[in-house]
Amino acid sequence: MATVPSYTPSIWVRVCHALPRLDLTMQMRDNIFTPDSWEYQQTLLVLSSLSAIALILSLLVVLSFLIHYCCCHRSDSGNASDEEEEDDDASGGHGYSGRKGRGICCVTWVSVAAVTLCCVAIGVGFYGNSEANDGMYQLTSSLLTANYTLASIDLLVSDMVSGLQQSVSGPLTSMEDLFTGSKPALVSTRSCRRLSERVVSLLSSLTLGRALVPTDGGAGNGSDAIIGALTPAPPAITPTLTPAAASPPGPFSPGWAANTLMVNEDYRWLSYVLLLLLDLVVCLFILLGLAKQARWLLILMTVLAWLALFLSWGSLGLETATVVALSDFCSDPNTFVLNSTNFNTGTSTDILDYYLTCSRSSSSPFQQLLTQSQRALSSIHSHLSTLERDALPRFPKAEKSLREVQQILNSTEGNFHQLVALLNCRGLNKDYIDSLKGLCYDGMEGLLYLSLYSFLSALAFTAILCSLPGAWRSFAGDSEDYEDSDSESEDPFTSHQDSKRFLQWQPWL
After folding, report:
1. 494 by DSSP, 3-state: which?
2. CB–CB of 75/65 below 8 Å?
3. Rounded CA gap, 473 and 463, in Å?
4. How far apart are CA 307 and CA 309, in angstroms?
5. I need a labelling partner for 120 at 20 to 30 A (CA). Which of 74, 267, 337, 401 fits?
6. Is the pLDDT of residue 43 over 60?
7. Helical H runs in 293-340?
8. How far apart are CA 408 and CA 170, in angstroms?
9. What percent of the residues of the chain are helix, what percent strand, and what percent coil, each to the nearest 5?
10. DSSP structural state of residue 248
């Protein structure tokens, strides 16, 4: 396991990474992060299926309560009719005392407790969604910064290559024509030309995002291969590059990965916000329905609670697989990056290991190339100084060409010093560590909170679905209250009999 400086896996990563893995045949598998392997995908499917099993158990529990309400309520209604009449007389006709009143109170408080648990789960979900979004934002920011560094390296290389090619084809060729009568000046000019072509050849082989360009001594092929190898980030962050092909960059581009992750993260964040709002609306209207004793509202919220139950268990399955896969990656990220063909294609393992570990004992794989380029540029500078001192007094017409070459050389040397600083491993390694911290710290914590939210909300909606049918069945409708209160007073037969009996009781009438 290659160590990453300034990064250690968190305790949650280690705990999730230590979970046993079973495939579809119930055989133990290792926990090495290999997302392209079918055996590894089977272990994630098995872990995700645990939420499906929990969903089936929840449905069985809700179904058992529904059977209890449907069957036992009918069987007990005849036996409890006399007790309910006595309870109504004792309570003044309100119907909220005795066994029925205690049942309504119990069912209502169970529903309120379940709604309270759901609200707590919603708060946890909002926090987890924010943490996961912060982690993805840090990851994409680090990728964009790394993309800016790589794009700057390519731009510097292309500028130096094009400048030296321009000096070879223009001023140096003119100087050779002018110095034909002086052998020492001609030798120095041809040495500058040869050294410039050598630097162009060396710099053309300097790449980070794809395979090394073969050094065949050609002066015109290296710069064309350098431009546009990386997909740039937005113009506000990185300079604009023109891609060499319309197909997605290969093998890997931090800018393309950052843009893809940002789009997917926006959809993920919005989906969770809508799910959380759905749960919140259901909980609030359930409380309103219990307070107003609105049977139609509770029936509607029961239907939405079924939908929320399925969504909660489904999201828990996805979160479980994501958390376990992320813990496998975060426990040893260097091994996956070094062994993955998506990263290794076109980039040597030594270069990747240099930028991923960035240890003090490791040397830059570009050290020899940079040293040779620096010596060549120094030699060109010394030859130009000799020509300026010895040849210009005899060939004043060569001054303009010499000044152009010196200007190109000064610009090339300035770009070369910037290139050396950018090729140092500290900058890209810092971006790599920041991306790991965003993904494996904040992102992992956010996913764990989202998993807790899904689990708590699933339990809450299970309890709600078990208690709500008993709650709205216990509510008395408006028609029943009306009949109970006004039936005797509005019955014409009862009124007529009472008046006739009253007349017969009066002897003087």
Report:
1. helix
2. no
3. 16
4. 5
5. 267
6. yes
7. 295-331, 333-339
8. 11
9. 75, 0, 20
10. P
Task: Give the residue among 415, 325, 424, 270 at the shortest CA–CA distance from 41.
Answer: 325
The answer to whether residues 140 and 263 touch, using CB atoms and an 8 Å cutoff, is no
Yes or no: say if 166 and 202 are a contact pair by the CB < 8 Å rule. Answer: no
Q: Residue 506 and residue 509: Cα distance in Å, rounded?
A: 6
Tokens of 443: 């992102």
91: pLDDT strictly greater than 80: no
Work out the end-to-end distance of the chain between its first and last CA atoms, rounded to an integer number of angstroms: 113
Tell me how far apart the alpha carbons of residues 295 and 474 are, in angstroms, rounded to a whole number: 9
Q: Which long-range contacts (CB under 8 A, 24 or more apart) does 412-420 make?
A: 412/160, 412/163, 412/164, 412/199, 412/377, 413/377, 413/381, 415/156, 415/159, 415/160, 416/156, 416/160, 416/373, 416/374, 416/377, 418/152, 418/156, 419/153, 419/156, 419/157, 419/160, 419/370, 420/370
Tell me which residue of 333, 287, 280 sits closest to 129, measured CA to CA.
Answer: 280
Q: Residue 358's closest CA among 300, 255, 405, 427?
A: 427
Q: The tokens 């350098």 sit on which residue?
A: 226
The model's pLDDT over 464-494, given as tens digits with 9 standing for 90+, comes to: 888 877 666 666 554 444 444 444 444 444 4
- CA-CA distances (angstroms) from residue 329 to 29, 131, 219, 335, 408? 16, 19, 43, 9, 47
Q: At 220, is the secondary structure helix, strand, or coil?
A: coil
Output the pTM of the full model.
Answer: 0.77
Assigned token pair, 451: 């998993």
pLDDT for 502 equals: 43
Dump pLDDT digits (tens) for 315-341: 999 999 999 999 999 998 988 888 775
DSSP, residue by residue, 375-430: HHHHHHHHHHHHHHHHTTTT-GGGHHHHHHHHHHHHHHHHHHHHHHHHTSHHHHHH
In sign, the C-alpha dihedral spanning 35, 37, 43, 48 is positive
Which residue's structure tokens are 């919140």? Answer: 280
Angle between helices 254-292 and 98-169 (to 10 degrees): 160
Alpha helical stretches, state H, 68-182? 73-79, 81-91, 98-169, 171-178
Q: Nearest to residue 301, comparing CAs of 286, 316, 320, 290? A: 286
Q: How far is 76 from 387, CA to CA, in rounded Å?
A: 114
Picking from 299, 338, 225, the residue whose alpha carbon sits closest to that of residue 473 is 299
CA–CA gap between residue 255 and residue 62 (Å, rounded) = 49
If we measure between CA atoms, which residue out of 156, 176, 160, 157 comes closest to residue 383?
A: 176
Question: In whole angstroms, how far apart are CA 483 and each of 58, 88, 218, 265, 480?
Answer: 39, 14, 102, 58, 5
Integer Cα distance of 96 and 84 in angstroms: 10
| HSE value, Cβ hemisphere, 13 Å, CA-based, for 410 | 7
Torsion on CA atoms 339, 341, 344, 345, rounded to nearest 10 = 160
Q: How far apart are CA 289 and CA 109, in angstroms?
A: 13
CB contact set of 463 (below 8 Å; sequence gap of 6+): 110, 111, 113, 114, 117
Evaluate whether 249 touches 427 at the Cβ level (below 8 Å): no
